[in-house]
Amino acid sequence: MKKAALLLVICFGITLSLVAQSGRVKDNLSMTSKILKMERNYAVYLPPDYETSERSYPVLYLLHGATDDHRGWVQFGEILRITDKGIKDGSATPMIIVMPDADTGKMGYFNQGKDWRYEDFFFEEFMPYVEQKYRIKGEKRYRAVAGLSMGGGGSFMYALHHPELFSSACPLSAYVGPLTIEDLKKRLEQNDVKYSEVEIQEYFKKHNAIELLKTVSVEDVKSVRWYIDCGDDDFLYEGNSLVHIAMKKKDIPHEYRVRDGRHSWTYWREALPAVLSFVSDAFHQY
Question: Structure pTM?
Fold first, then answer.
């Protein structure tokens, strides 16, 4: 009887140990947005020792692509398994990963007209909300942004619009913005957004990574560590290549990866460990 009790205690202890080594993902969270006048969903990854410590953590804002939502990186990107493994083997530092929803209402990470101000929501409401709710170190050196496809574009624009907020940015297979004014006009027509000719010109300059590199201070761009990754068979290769060339011409340090692969979750799952390691280096003040 004593042996059975001892065995039970040992098994219980092993179970607790395994649980303690795993992070937690919550993908059914929401907050109220006054700017967007609705509830906004989001998901969060909390590192293994979050519940047992009192420390604060760096944060990675991880953006999904078009047609996905805040659960994309959870379900298809295997954020829990990959991040737990990185923390366990030491390639990633314990961090909080926040995954917002940019698919409800209108799809996208930017303001669209006067009545849909998603980017304003992100910086004025969402970021302050999660950084107060969770034990997040709210400083540039401890904040990163990454994303895939549409979210890769969000990563580019957010870090270029607010280089004072992010220590690193990792666009994956990014849509870098419309490459021509004509491309932008077609997209605006598809999204049923009405802009004047002047507004179209302003939007193009603000939502195209190549154009932004012409106007944003080089020193500000250099204050962000950049990791750009796009597959050799990805249909968005051109825009990413042009950003790489533009950065090279301005001597802006950045990592540029072209791996074998296409626009797929297989590619992005393989990219995620490198992203976690890259942002961790920035968090550690490499």
Answer: 0.91
